[in-house]
């Protein structure tokens, strides 16, 4: 870690609709777009339609903005997997708390944001889901950067499974789990 990243402060804050323009911009960044089918077709209207109900609390998914040294640099969402039956049947642990994330700002890649983001999220997730025993993430099998990040913060790689995509394709995902008790205290 270089001296610059030693001073890095990463936090999470609740996402608002005002953050959706940043989300749209991040979704179009090449390092992010490759993991979203039809990313080039995303518009502010499609982003609002998909994520607005989550922000408004109408869908049981919590949305957060990742901040690095006070700047919005990415997003994180979490949810009880069993609240989303279409995903619960795909995962080995439907009662786990799922987490998805991205660092959208290119200037903040490879600077320790991801590691600090997930470590901060452990506390946020425990506060929001105090009865949870397992956290679960499932990046695309080709997303080696994300898979390494999960291993670095203590997740264990597990089952590989196919997930239907909105464009009609299928993505092979790699499940990663971590026992909540291992990250508390």
Concise structural overview:
It contains 7 helices and 7 strands; from the N terminus they run H-E-H-H-H-E-E-H-E-H-E-H-E-E.
Provide structural commentary.
The structure is a single chain. The protein is α+β, with helices and mostly antiparallel strands and 185 residues long. It has one domain (3-182): Aminopeptidase, CATH 3.40.630. 31% of the residues lie in helices and 29% in strands. It contains 7 helices and 7 strands. A 7-stranded mixed sheet has the order 1-2-3-4-5-7-6, with helices on both faces. β6 and β7 form a beta hairpin. The mean pLDDT is 91. Pfam families: Acetyltransf_8. It comes from Nocardioides immobilis. This is GNAT family N-acetyltransferase. GO terms for molecular function: N-acyltransferase activity. Keywords: Antibiotic resistance, Transferase.
SSE map:
Blueprint: H1 3-6, E1 10-14, H2 20-28, H3 30-33, H4 44-55, E2 61-68, E3 71-80, H5 85-88, E4 97-103, H6 113-128, E5 134-137, H7 144-152, E6 156-164, E7 170-179
Parallel strand pairs: 4-5
Antiparallel strand pairs: 1-2, 2-3, 3-4, 5-7, 6-7
Helix pairs in contact: 2-4
Total strand count, please? 7
- The proportion of strand residues reads 25-35%
Q: What's the alpha carbon Rg, rounded to whole Å? A: 16 Å
State mean pLDDT (0 to 100 scale): 91
Morphology: globular
Give the domain tally: 1
Q: Enter the CATH topology name.
A: Aminopeptidase
Q: Which stretches of 5+ consecutive residues score pLDDT under 50?
A: none
Please give a handful of descriptors for the protein shown.
single chain, 185 residues, alpha+beta, Aminopeptidase, 7-stranded mixed β-sheet, 7 strands, 31% helix, 29% strand, globular, Acyl_CoA_acyltransferase
